[in-house]
Task: inverse folding
């Protein structure tokens, strides 16, 4: 095997993480990057931060009974992420894939600390998740994400808007305030955890070109599918 | 506020005004824990204290998910540890803290320590487990019923007629032999309880003895928590018909019989 283990996590694959507010364009960009890598012969695995049945059903029940607190909410998402990590992230990483993660433990950190959880506590809980090779943070003003959200006609959910924090009775107002809080935590993390900041106010094409120029040099000796077949 | 917990604040919770006492009884399955909890509850209620009892895996929030996970054995060790933490946090915030706020004594049949020991035995680091449960309230007293593995084995067999899959740590693949796995697993757990006994100031009670002896030991530590008994307490009489030990044991035994068919021991 010619695969050079990554310096940060020690697995043969590569782990690229896409973080940012809802509507920051990161999913579109992750998808385009995956297409490009696939066309170049890399084995690519893309995974998203989707709530599993376990979490969504529990949250539904908890919300109805008014039982959920910032602590249980946080632990519930940690449970879900641990499961997703075991099933979806770790195996391809060990098998030498380029893993593209649309949201990672940083999403939990940002949301939980915005709800008042102790940052050191959240960080330790998620310490089972290795440091990615690169975290791309899609920076965009809150006003832009709100405009995109409304244009998409998707309903703003209770927790997405941080309604549980009592910031405002108006869901759009609460959403804007909560997202501003999240953005502040993202900005701090970008510095402390050395995120690669992507200016997401530009055109889709310009952002994608930027991303590709970041990723290409990190795959220098990384095997493509054809090369692997010859190796095997 | 964090001095009431093990280091992590509980967002949205008030813990400055907890009037009640939190008493924890820890010990392996077969250590006589259930019997002692029943005796202690009787004692406290006779003394005039309101008692709320609690244990593991009894919250409404995720107990069904835990049952499902245990049946399918499909969840990873970290995932399962976190699922138990959700359950504990839910009980702490929705049951234990409200009861303590109301001035009741909360009597916990196991607490975070069992959950920590199980998680560590399955590969979590002590530090991770310690921080994970950093939001738990510090109990006023932790009684640790310490019994030898041979005693646990005999009690498990006489109580359930067999060894339990989970209590034997069969999910760890320590051995394909249930009997051997039981000892290897209990050994791992007791190593962690040994560490926690110091770290969390357990009051260790020799549980290789009779329930009466164990209970007498426990009361020695429980009485001082409440200060002097009020003078208005009338002298007790006519209570000799049945010893409190045998009465409580009867209740504990019938409780475990009722649960036996429904779910494995916790």
Result:
């Amino acid at each position: 095997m010619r695969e050079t283990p990554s310096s940060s996590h020690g697995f043969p694959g590569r782990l690229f993480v896409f973080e940012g507010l809802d509507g920051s364009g990161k999913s579109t960009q992750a998808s385009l990057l995956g297409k490009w890598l696939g066309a170049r012969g890399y084995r690519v695995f893309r995974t998203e931060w989707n709530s599993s049945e376990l979490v969504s059903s529990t949250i539904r029940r908890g919300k109805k009974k008014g039982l959920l607190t910032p602590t249980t909410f946080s632990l519930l998402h940690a449970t879900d992420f641990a499961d997703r990590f075991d099933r979806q992230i770790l195996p391809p990483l060990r098998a030498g894939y380029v893993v593209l993660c649309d949201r990672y433990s940083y999403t939990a950190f940002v949301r939980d600390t915005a709800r008042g959880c102790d940052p050191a506590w959240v960080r330790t809980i998620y310490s089972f998740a290795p440091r990615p090779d690169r975290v791309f943070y899609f920076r965009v003003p809150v006003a832009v994400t709100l405009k995109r959200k409304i244009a998409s006609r998707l309903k703003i959910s209770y927790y997405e808007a941080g309604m549980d924090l009592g910031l405002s009775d108006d869901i759009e107002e609460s959403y804007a305030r909560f997202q501003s809080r999240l953005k502040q935590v993202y900005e701090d993390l970008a510095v402390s955890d050395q995120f690669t900041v992507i200016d997401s106010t530009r055109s889709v094409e310009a952002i994608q070109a930027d991303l590709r120029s970041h990723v290409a040099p990190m795959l220098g000796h990384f095997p493509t599918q054809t090369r692997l077949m010859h190796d095997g | 506020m964090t001095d009431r917990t093990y280091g992590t604040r509980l967002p949205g919770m008030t813990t400055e005004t907890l009037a009640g006492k939190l008493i924890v009884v820890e010990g392996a399955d077969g250590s006589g824990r259930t019997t002692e909890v029943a005796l202690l509850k009787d004692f406290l209620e006779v003394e005039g204290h309101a008692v709320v009892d609690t244990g593991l895996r009894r919250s409404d929030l995720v107990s069904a998910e835990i049952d499902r996970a245990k049946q399918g054995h499909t969840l990873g060790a970290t995932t399962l540890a976190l699922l138990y933490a959700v359950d504990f946090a839910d009980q702490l915030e929705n049951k234990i803290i409200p009861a303590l706020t109301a001035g009741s004594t909360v009597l916990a049949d196991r607490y975070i320590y069992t959950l920590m020991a199980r998680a560590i035995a399955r590969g979590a680091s002590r530090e991770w487990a310690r921080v994970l449960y950093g939001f738990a309230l510090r109990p006023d007293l932790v009684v640790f019923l310490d019994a030898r593995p041979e005693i646990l084995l005999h009690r498990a067999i006489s109580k359930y007629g067999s060894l339990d899959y989970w209590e034997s740590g069969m999910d760890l693949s320590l051995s394909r032999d249930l009997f051997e796995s039981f000892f290897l697993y209990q050994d791992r757990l007791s190593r962690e309880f040994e560490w926690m006994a110091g770290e969390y100031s357990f009051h260790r009670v020799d549980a290789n003895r009779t329930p009466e002896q164990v209970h007498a030991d426990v009361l020695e530590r429980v009485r001082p928590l409440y200060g002097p008994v009020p003078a208005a307490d009338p002298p007790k009489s006519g209570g000799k018909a049945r010893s409190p030990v045998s009465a409580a044991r009867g209740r504990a035994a019938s409780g475990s019989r009722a649960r036996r068919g429904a779910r494995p021991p916790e």
Summary: Chain A has one domain: 19-51+82-219.
